[in-house]
Amino acid sequence: MNAASATPLLRDAAVPPAASTETAADTAAEPAPARNPGQPFDPDWFTDLRVNLSAVERRIAGLAGRRSVKKDAQAAWLLKAITCIDLTTLSGDDTAERVKRLCAKARQPLRPDLQAALGVADRRITTGAVCVYHRFVATAVAALEGSGIPVAAVSTGFPAGLIPHELKLKEIEASVRDGAQEIDIVITREHVLAGQWRALYDEMRDFRAACGEAHVKAILATGELKTLRNVAKASMVCMMAGADFIKTSTGKEPVNATLPVSLVMLRMIRDYEERTGVRIGYKPAGGVATAKNVLEYQVLMKEELGRPWLEPELFRIGASSLLADIERQLEHHVTGRYSAFNRHGVA
Hints:
By secondary structure, the protein is α/β, with parallel strands linked by helices. It has helices spanning about 5-10, 55-65, 70-80, 95-105, 110-115, 135-145, 165-175, 190-195, 195-210, 230-240, 260-275, 290-305, 320-335, and strands spanning about 85-90, 130, 150-155, 180-185, 215-220, 245, 280-285, 315-320. Residues about 1-30 have low confidence and may be disordered.
């Protein structure tokens, strides 16, 4: 799809047929997607992008009325959601002990009695990753040893991204040396707001190179990009420069992940795959705090991109309190009673 044809795609907001929800908790049948090698800088891919806001809003408004996931199907979708969570602590008062508790929860996110009652006692269920500041990467790597759970480090002067470029690269390299397998970088928002697309591309290429074998997630901070058109363009440029995932937010902006922003970013992922054959992952972060919220994002992913984007290789949710609410909802599914939220601690 060329840039000119992107306009009707976003304008018509056509709803594809939905597949059965029965597959939502199945294991992946396909191999892990290949790394994104990136593409040469080409403004023709994004210069003429337009977003029809009314069509986006209609598409999102129609989701709730068209899809209802209930009972066993809902439990299956929520189990799958657990495996896609980047369990996160990014607070100024973080400590090594807090990170260790978070890692223990990532290893065993669901109580064994609930897992048995749901008929999945034989399944190994973990979160998709643990996400921390660089300061705690080595602590998390040690706590997760042997689990297969990757550590993701926020980097490049998170959350504002306003430190010198050379220090951003050094921070990435330090986190990789400490064992981080994923790096969540923040872009320089000024490049987007000023239309400096080549500068954004060059920055992202440098970040990708500094990550080496570690996967890189590009945080767009969509709440600070002002328009959905900017979100679409920034998404395309970051993918063109080699991002393995595009991510909505740091969780620190006044407005973080939203469904309209997500729809625009997913359409850009679809466009990029059509052009290159490369599948890019997506990560909403900030504000996805309840089981109801995550089901909305799962349905959107399934309808817009298809079944492979329900797996942690291509879908992550940056969250801290979400896991507790999912566990609470699953207990209600098993017992018919809601327990107090504080009985389901994050860590």
